Amino acid sequence: MEKTLLHICCAPCSVMCIETLRTEGIEPHGYWYNPNIHPVTEYRARRDTLIQYAKDINMELSLRDDYGLREFVRAIYPDLENRCGVCYEMRLFEAARFAKENGFTSFLTTLLISPYQNHGLLKATAERAAAEFGIDFLYRDFRPFFREGQKKARELGLYMQKYCGCVFSEEERYIRKKK
Fold first, then answer.
1. Which strand (E) or helix (H) includes residue 174?
2. 81 or 60: whose pLDDT is higher?
3. Buried-state track 11-47, b at ≥16 Cβ within 10 A, e below 16
């Protein structure tokens, strides 16, 4: 039987990914690992929202619940301009490792729903992780469902963040606002 691990960056991004997979007859098992999310209050808000949402929709969820500020900063420094690629690698390689070690046959990520992420780099990174761990990467382009997912998340009252998670993306959000 097909067992699919879905790396989840946040509950709002997961809504349409899970719904779409279930429509295909795939029951995903959620996985939380996001050392990029800062500050710790933001990390906890996103994690706790996902935990409750998983319960609400009856989805199994595993957590690697270690707030990863130091690990994340060490990994991206000093090349801050290429932090997204490092961040994808940290999360997708961990998801592939967890999937392989826990008997899943495939994995994918909710990051594939965001039009703000580098989709090509995400896909290439996930494919490398899949090859390294000998597990299938279940590719889906969820971007056409992004707006619908955000709308449903608001209707459900899910906590909605305003940046991808890392402190540098939050900084960029404020700099753009000033301009």
1. helix 167-178
2. 60
3. bbbbbbbbebbeeeebbbbbbbbbbbbbeeebbeebb
Please name the CATH architecture into which domain 4-178 falls. Answer: 3-Layer(aba) Sandwich (3.40)
In whole angstroms, what is the distance from residue 107 CA to residue 159 CA? 25
**Any idea where the domains of the chain sit in the sequence?**
4-178
Q: Where residue 166 falls among pLDDT bands split at 50, 70, 90?
A: confident
Element (H, E) at 84: helix 83-101
The H or E element spanning position 109 is: strand 106-109
Q: Is the dihedral of CA 112, 115, 116, 121 positive or negative?
A: positive
Residues 142 and 110 sit within 8 Å (Cβ to Cβ): yes
Question: What confidence tier does 174 reach under pLDDT thresholds 50, 70, 90?
Answer: low
pTM over 0.90: yes
**Residue 59 and residue 53: Cα distance in Å, rounded?**
8
